[in-house]
Specification:
By secondary structure, this protein is mainly α. It is built from 4 helices and no strands. The model has no long low-confidence stretch (mean pLDDT 89).
């Protein structure tokens, strides 16, 4: 059970770090806050950390669930949950109706994946 918990945490945090780096870089570049190279390097370091967390999440996930499809579903669902939340926090934009529905369905998918 502990490995499953670690897998879920690593996947959620890894996806969150990745999405956050992408959105902060896009926002900073659009606002011309710094040079492209500075923004890119900061985002690259954060994406590398996110990648390490995702690899650990996949490793723990496959070992504990014994099913790569379960781990893939958790990873994709993590993106579905994190992307809109971080998008709102970074850009202060509310989701459209379709995006909100996708968020709800993604959350439901995460629950179903974990419970079954």
């Amino acid at each position: 059970m502990m490995q499953r918990t670690f897998a879920i945490i690593f996947l959620l945090v890894g996806e969150a770090f990745s999405v956050y780096a992408e959105m902060i870089a896009a926002r900073a570049h659009a606002l011309d806050q710094q040079s492209f190279q500075v923004i890119f390097f900061k985002a690259f370091l954060q994406i590398a950390t996110a990648g390490a967390l995702l690899i650990a999440g996949y490793m723990y996930g496959y070992r504990s669930f014994k099913n790569i499809w379960m781990v893939s579903a958790l990873s994709i669902t993590s993106i579905l949950i994190m992307e809109p939340l971080i998008g709102y926090l970074v850009f202060q934009q509310l989701p459209t109706r379709g995006a909100l529905l996708g968020l709800i369905l993604g959350a439901l998918g995460f629950v179903v994946t974990f419970v079954m």
